[in-house]
Design a protein that fits this description.
- The protein has about 90 residues and is mostly helical.
- The chain has 4 helices and no strands.
- Helix 3 packs across helix 4.
- The relative contact order is 0.05.
Amino acid sequence: MAERLNLAIYQFDNWNVSPADKQLLIIKMKRAWSQKKRRDKLEGRKAYSILMSTDVKSKLDEMAYEQGCHRNTLLEKIINDSYNTFKGIGSKW
């Protein structure tokens, strides 16, 4: 492993491009690594974009504030509770 790392460093150092191009590559690699870490942290979760009327959003904000949680957490709870009720796991719908 260390041998491969040393070879990569050697090749990078002796790469015949401008310092600005090397710097750009480093920046892009850092961003890609940050994005990968972020995606790994969000495993099992997915972002959704849905349209809602403004009054529904304000109601959701108010409810989340009163519950002391974020909108997404509250929305997940509401959907899970409603689904369980719908499937007969909880009280009848």
